[in-house]
Amino acid sequence: MATTIATLTQKTDGSLEGFFATIRVNAPIAIVPNASKSSEEAPDYRIIHRKTGFEIGAGWNRIARVTGEEYLSVKLEAPEIGVI
């Protein structure tokens, strides 16, 4: 069973906005397309803390091997939330 740690709404520009929430953190975030993607390994999205403007993570478009479904794989890092 997975735990929901973010509630997001997709915007018309392709970005997502919402809140990242855990027991200790409740942060407004935006997941925005990476307009400056310079290589195949570079992230497809940047995750931004909406109040401070700091980048706290990145996301990559992936395809599930078994089902073929598309999903967004993310990595979050910030001193106040650690590495998730």
List the helices and strands and how they pair.
Elements (H helix, E strand, L loop, with lengths): L5 E5 L5 E6 L4 E8 L11 E5 L5 E9 L6 E9 L3 E2 L1
Antiparallel strand pairs: 1-2, 2-3, 3-4, 4-5, 5-6, 6-7
In short:
By secondary structure, the protein is an all-beta fold. Helix content is 0%, strand content 52%.
How would you characterize the overall build of this protein?
It is a single chain. By secondary structure, this protein is mainly beta. The chain has one domain. The protein is built from no helices and seven strands. The protein has a seven-stranded antiparallel beta sheet, with no helix packed on it. Strand 1 and strand 2 form a beta hairpin.
Q: How would you state the average pLDDT, rounded? A: 89
Indicate the proportion of strand residues: over 45%
- How many domain regions? 1
Q: Which structural class do the helices and strands define?
A: mainly beta
User: CA-to-CA gap between the ends?
Assistant: 17 Å
User: What's the total count of β strands?
Assistant: 7
Cα-atom Rg, whole angstroms? 13 Å
Helices and strands, in N-to-C order? EEEEEEE
